[in-house]
């Protein structure tokens, strides 16, 4: 792949970015992960991996404007049109479009090719580790989601999947052990290591918040006697 071609595709990606959580920095991190994963696997079309990683979220702005849309579907269509308009054969354009449409986790649309699996894994790795925590907090702020909920006992709840939306619930429902949902061994290796950092953060966050509420509750109970 020539550098000039990379830059042309990169420019197209940058024109389609309009989201602080799924911004160009997210795209570059996903690209970095994708390259590392591809390097650990034989017989991978690296060009497909690079282009898929670069363009995987170009439908995000459309989804933000109209939440009924699926950014993976819109991005897949936009990528295919762009690639064909820029001289790529239909077979390669379809391959990349497929990688993009299957990067979003849906049981009825799982990635099949190794390039699609790499794209999926690279995207999910950016939800792990300290960066994953930062992005979860940033996203929660975007959608006005609280860090935690408080129960009737005036103490923070644990964020069980059955509870209302919160950062704690997002961790328990989606982010905890995310590496188990990855396809490639290299991605699982990276995700498993970065999970340790994420787990430690959430353990300490819950302890800190719970300690604050528990200590205050004891004092308040005395005051209100």
Walkthrough of the structure:
With 225 residues, the protein is mostly helical. The chain folds into 2 domains: 1-107, Hypothetical protein af1432 (Orthogonal Bundle), CATH 1.10.3210; 127-225, Methane Monooxygenase Hydroxylase, Chain G, domain 1. Helices cover 65% and strands 0% of the residues. It has 10 helices and no strands. It has helices spanning 3-15, 24-39, 46-55, 60-65, 71-85, 90-101, 114-125, 129-142, 167-175, 185-223. α3 packs across α7 (114-125), α5 (71-85) runs antiparallel to α6 (90-101) and α8 packs across α10 (185-223). The longest helix has 39 residues, at 185-223. The chain is elongated, with a radius of gyration of 20 Å. 36% of the residues are buried. The model has no long low-confidence stretch (mean pLDDT 94).
Give the H and E element order: HHHHHHHHHH
User: Which fold name is given in CATH as the topology of the largest domain?
Assistant: Hypothetical protein af1432
| Overall helicity | 55-70%
Chain-averaged pLDDT? 94
- Helical segment tally? 10
- Compute the number of structural domains: 2
Number of strands: 0
Termini gap: 74 Å
CATH superfamily of the largest domain: Hypothetical protein af1432
- Which segments are poorly predicted (pLDDT under 50) over 5 or more consecutive residues? none
CATH architecture of the largest domain: Orthogonal Bundle
Q: The biggest beta sheet, please? A: none
Class derived from helix and strand content: mainly alpha
